[in-house]
Specification:
heterodimer, A: Cytochrome-c3 Hydrogenase, chain B, three-stranded antiparallel beta sheet, globular, B: disordered C terminus
Chain lengths: ~400, ~400
C-alpha cells in the first residue's frame, strides 16, 4: 500500500522531470527510478556490459550554486553530454519592470545577481539615465565606482570561496568570507542593506557617505592585498589545485567571441575586453588600472584573472577615494520620470561580465519593455561544451569557474 | 581472594577487549571529533562547536543522542540486508585491528598482576592488520552499491578503485620495513627499535611517506576523500545513510584513521619509546609513561590528518589512480631494493640502516630545498605573466 503510494509519487516526479528535460532538449526521457520499476529487474545487465547512466545533477546539489539542474549522460564518471536546465528561480523580473515606474524597478535588480547588487543597480540606472540624458554629478560617479568595485571584490570573494569548496579546499572559503563580511559592513553603513543594496538612484545616489566611511575604507583596502596573498598562498601554487584546474575547460578566444562570453572568462582566453576600458562609463576613463589578461583560457587562468582583478579593484577604490570631493550626489532629475519614447542599451562590467539593460520607452512613466543581458546566463551556455569529455569532478570545477548566480540566470 | 586470582590473564584480556570496544568509540566521539572541529575552526578563523558543555566538550554526547534518536531510513529500493551490513562491516574490522596495536609494555596493576598494554601479540601482526583493515573498505563499497542511488554507487566505485590502487603501495612500503625488522610482530618491531637504538623512520623515510599517503587514501580523508566528496557526489557512499548506521560509518572512518596512525607510530616512530631512549641526556624523558608517549605520537598523526583536511583541495579520481600506480608503486618497489642493498652491502646490519638513514635524510633536505626554489621561480613567472603594472602595489 505504502509502496504503491511511493512509486506513484515517484512516477509523478519522474514525469515532471521528464517533461522539463524534454523542454530542455534532452533527447529521451529520464530513466528515473520510479519510471519502470519492473523493467530494471527483468533485464539484469550482463557482466562487462557498459551502460550509459543518466544522472540528475541538481537542482538540489551542493555544487550547483543554487537551483541549477544539469542532466548528465555519463559513462562511468566520464561526461558524454551535459545539458543545463534552468528556470527554477524564474520570477519574471523583466515583466515586473513593465508594471512599475522606473525608480521602482531598481530594487528588482538587486534580486537578479544577488551577490553583486550594486552593479545591477548601476546598469539599470545607467540605462534610464541614458534615456533621460541626465548628467550624474562627479561625487556620485566616484562613489558609484567605489561601490561597484567593492561589489566586484565581494562577488569575487564569494566565487573564490565557493569554487575552492567545489574542489575540496575548504579553508579559503572562510578567509574569503571574513573579508566579504567587512565589505558588507561598508555597504550596510552606507545604505542599510548588506545584500540587496538598492544603493543607486536614477541620476545619482540615495545617500551621501557617513562620516569616517572613507577613512575606514582606506584602512580596509590597505589591508586587503595582504589578505589576497593569503588566499593565493593556499591555492595558486598548490599542486593539487593546479592539477584540478590547469587545462580543464579550455575556451579559445574565437569561441568566447562566438558564444558572446564576457567577463573574466573572455579575458582568461586572451581577449582584453573589459567595458570599464572598452566603453568607459562614469569616471573609469580617468582611472589607472590594468585589465588582467591570460592566454590559456582554462580554469586556472580564469582563477588567476579573477584574483588579479581583485588586486586591480583595490587600486581603483584607492584612486577614487583620493579623488573624492564635496558635491551633489544627485543630478537634475524630474520628480516624475517620463523618458522620451526611445530605445536604448546601456551596460556595465559586472563581476560576471557584461551586464546590460535594453530599455524601450513609450513616453509613459513605466518602461514598455526592459530586457536584461545577464552575463551569467550567457556564460552558462558554454557549460555543455566545456563539460563534454571531462569527469564529474571537473563538472563541479567548471560550474564554479563560470561563476553563475542563478538569480541572474533565471531572473 | 587476591587480585592475582581474580585478574587472570584471560580475564585481563576480556577487560582489555571491552575497553577497546567501549573506549575507542568514546574517544572518537568525544575527543577526536571535537578536536578536529575545534582545530579546523582555529585554522579557518572561526570558533567551531563551543555551545554544548564547557568549551563544547559535550558536543560528542549531543551528536550521539542526535544520531541514535534519528530515524533510520532505508531507501525503498535498496538492497536491505547489504545496506544494513555495510556500516557494520566498516566498523568491526577497524575495532578488531586495534587488538594487535601495542600501546605500551607491561604495566603492574596490583601485586603479582601485570599485563601488557595490548590484547594480543601475534607473530603475523602486521599482516593481520593489512588484511583486516582492507576489509573495512568493503563496507564502503557495499554501502554505496546497496543504497541504489547513483551518487552512492559512484562513491562506492571510487572507493573500490582507491582500494586497488593504494593497498599495493601500502603493503610494499611495509615490506621495506620488514627487511629492517625481520619480524611481523608489532611488539617485536618496537623492541627491535629499542635494541638497535634507531627508530625506523630514518632508514624508512621513503617507506613512511608512502605508507602515510596510502594510509590517508585508504581512510578516505582529504585530499583523497573521493568516495564521500561532498561537493561532487553529495555525500557519496553514505548519502542514503542516517542515524545509527551513519554513525557506524563515521566511527569506522575515524577508527581507521586511528589505526593508520597507530601503525605509523609503531613501525616508524618507536611505538611507546621516548625519543632517543638510549641517550643519557634525554633520560629524563623516561619519566613520562610509555603509554602517554604512544598516545602523544598518535595524536600528532591525527593532527596531521586534520591539518591536511583544512589545507588541501581534493584530487580527481583519475589523478588519484595515476599517483598510486605511476608514482607510488614504482617508488615503493625501488625502495625495497635500496633497503635490501643497504642491509646486504654492509656486514653490520645496523650501520647499513644508519647510513641509509643519512642518505634518505640528505635526499629529503635536498628535494625540499629544490621544491622551495622551484616554487619561488614559478611564482615570479606567474607574476610576470600579467602586465607589469598589474602586479601587486606596495
Amino acid at each position: 500500500m505504502s509502496d504503491e503510494k511511493i512509486s506513484q509519487a515517484e512516477r509523478d516526479e519522474a514525469a515532471h522531470f521528464a517533461s522539463r528535460a524534454a523542454a530542455a532538449g534532452v533527447a529521451r526521457p529520464l530513466a528515473g527510478k520510479g519510471d519502470t520499476p519492473a523493467s530494471s529487474s527483468a533485464e539484469p545487465p550482463t557482466l562487462f556490459d557498459v551502460q550509459e547512466m543518466e544522472l540528475n545533477f541538481g537542482p538540489q546539489h551542493p555544487s550547483t550554486h543554487g537551483v541549477l539542474r544539469i542532466v548528465l549522460k555519463v559513462d562511468g564518471e566520464k561526461i558524454l553530454q551535459a545539458i543545463p536546465d534552468v528556470g527554477y528561480l524564474h520570477r519574471g523580473t523583466e515583466k515586473l519592470f513593465e508594471t512599475e515606474t522606473y525608480p521602482m524597478g531598481i530594487p528588482h535588480t538587486d534580486r537578479m545577481d544577488y551577490v553583486a547588487a550594486a552593479t545591477n543597480n548601476h546598469a539599470f540606472c545607467l540605462a534610464v539615465e541614458k534615456l533621460l540624458d541626465v548628467e550624474v554629478p562627479r561625487r556620485a560617479q566616484l562613489i558609484r565606482v567605489i561601490l561597484d568595485e567593492l561589489q566586484r571584490l565581494s562577488s569575487h570573494l564569494v566565487w573564490l570561496g565557493t569554487s575552492g569548496i567545489d574542489l575540496g579546499a575548504v579553508t579559503p572559503f572562510w578567509y574569503a568570507f571574513r573579508e566579504r563580511e567587512q565589505i558588507l559592513d561598508f555597504f550596510e553603513e552606507y545604505c542599510g542593506a548588506r545584500l540587496t543594496l538598492n544603493c543607486m538612484r536614477i541620476g545619482g545616489l540615495p545617500f551621501d557617505l557617513t562620516t569616517g566611511w572613507i577613512e575606514r575604507l582606506f584602512e580596509f583596502v590597505d589591508d586587503l592585498p595582504a589578505r589576497i596573498d593569503d588566499y593565493e598562498q593556499l591555492l595558486t601554487d598548490n599542486r593539487i589545485w593546479k592539477k584540478r584546474t590547469v587545462g580543464i575547460g579550455v575556451l579559445t578566444a574565437a569561441e568566447c567571441i562566438e558564444w558572446g562570453l564576457t567577463g573574466p572568462i573572455i579575458r582568461a582566453s586572451g581577449v582584453e575586453w573589459d567595458l570599464r576600458r572598452a566603453q568607459p562609463y562614469e569616471c573609469y576613463d580617468e582611472l589607472d588600472f590594468v585589465v588582467p589578461v591570460r592566454q590559456n583560457g582554462d580554469t586556472y587562468d580564469r582563477y588567476v584573472v579573477r584574483v588579479q582583478e581583485m588586486r586591480q579593484s583595490v587600486r581603483i577604490i584607492r584612486q577614487c577615494l583620493e579623488r573624492i570631493e564635496a558635491g551633489d550626489i544627485r543630478g537634475k532629475v524630474p520628480r516624475v520620470i517620463k523618458p522620451p519614447a526611445e530605445e536604448i542599451y546601456a551596460s556595465v562590467e559586472s563581476p560576471k561580465g557584461e551586464l546590460g539593460f535594453y530599455c524601450v520607452s513609450n513616453g509613459t512613466n513605466r518602461p514598455y519593455r526592459m530586457h536584461c543581458r545577464p552575463p551569467s546566463f550567457i556564460n552558462l551556455q558554454a557549460l555543455p561544451k566545456l563539460a563534454k569529455g571531462h569527469l564529474i569532478s571537473d563538472l563541479v570545477a567548471l560550474i564554479g569557474t563560470i561563476d553563475i548566480v542563478l538569480g541572474e540566470v533565471d531572473r | 581472594m587476591t587480585a592475582a586470582k581474580v585478574l587472570t590473564p584471560t580475564v585481563l584480556t576480556y577487560i582489555k577487549v571491552v575497553l577497546i570496544v567501549a573506549v575507542v568509540p568514546a574517544i572518537v566521539g568525544f575527543v577526536v571529533v571535537l578536536a578536529e572541529r575545534r582545530l579546523m575552526g582555529f585554522m579557518q578563523v572561526r570558533l567551531g562547536p563551543n555551545r554544548v558543555g564547557p568549551k563544547g566538550t559535550l558536543q560528542g554526547l549531543a551528536d550521539l543522542v542526535k544520531l541514535v534518536t534519528k530515524e533510520d531510513v532505508t531507501p525503498a529500493r535498496a538492497e536491505k540486508l547489504v545496506h544494513f551490513l555495510a556500516p557494520v562491516l566498516a566498523v568491526i574490522p577497524a575495532l578488531t585491528a586495534l587488538a594487535v596495536i601495542p600501546m605500551g609494555p607491561s604495566v603492574r596493576l596490583a601485586r603479582h598482576v601485570s599485563t601488557p598494554l595490548y590484547v594480543a601479540d601475534i607473530n603475523i601482526g602486521l599482516l593481520f592488520l593489512l588484511a583486516i583493515t582492507s576489509i573495512g573498505v568493503y563496507g564502503i563499497i557495499l554501502g554505496g552499491w546497496a543504497s541504489n542511488n547513483k551518487y552512492s554507487l559512484l562513491g562506492g566505485l571510487r572507493s573500490a578503485a582507491q582500494l586497488v590502487s593504494y593497498e599495493v603501495p601500502m603493503g610494499l612500503s611495509l615490506v621495506a620495513v620488514l627487511l629492517m625488522t625481520r619480524s611481523l610482530s608489532l611488539v617485536e618491531i618496537v623492541q627491535r627499535q629499542d635494541r638497535l637504538h634507531l627508530w625506523f623512520i630514518f632508514p624508512g623515510l621513503l617507506s613512511f611517506f608512502l605508507y602515510f599517503v596510502s594510509g590517508v587514501a585508504e581512510t578516505n580523508r582529504n585530499p583523497f576523500d573521493l568516495p564521500e566528496a561532498e561537493s561532487e557526489l553529495v555525500s557519496g557512499f553514505n548519502t542514503e545513510y542516517s542515524g545509527v548506521k551513519f554513525a557506524f560509518f563515521f566511527l569506522g572512518e575515524y577508527a581507521a584513521m586511528i589505526i593508520i596512525s597507530c601503525v605509523a607510530v609503531t613501525v616508524f616512530f618507536g611505538g611507546w619509546l621516548p625519543p632517543f631512549p638510549h641517550v643519557r641526556a634525554l633520560s629524563f624523558l623516561h619519566f613520562i609513561p610509555p603509554f602517554v608517549w604512544f598516545l602523544g605520537k598518535v595524536g600528532v598523526f591525527l593532527f596531521t590528518y586534520i591539518w591536511f583536511r583544512s589545507t588541501f583541495p581534493r584530487y580527481r579520481f583519475d589523478q588519484l589512480m595515476a599517483l598510486g600506480w605511476k608514482t607510488m608503486i614504482p617508488l615503493a618497489l625501488g625502495n625495497i631494493v635500496v633497503v635490501a642493498v643497504a642491509i646486504l652491502a654492509t656486514p653490520n646490519r645496523t650501520t647499513g640502516l644508519v647510513r641509509l638513514g643519512w642518505i634518505y635524510g640528505a635526499l629529503f633536505v635536498v628535494l625540499f630545498l629544490l621544491a622551495k626554489l622551484r616554487q619561488a621561480l614559478t611564482r615570479r613567472d606567474r607574476l610576470e605573466a600579467v602586465p607589469a603594472s598589474a602586479r601587486r602595489t606596495a
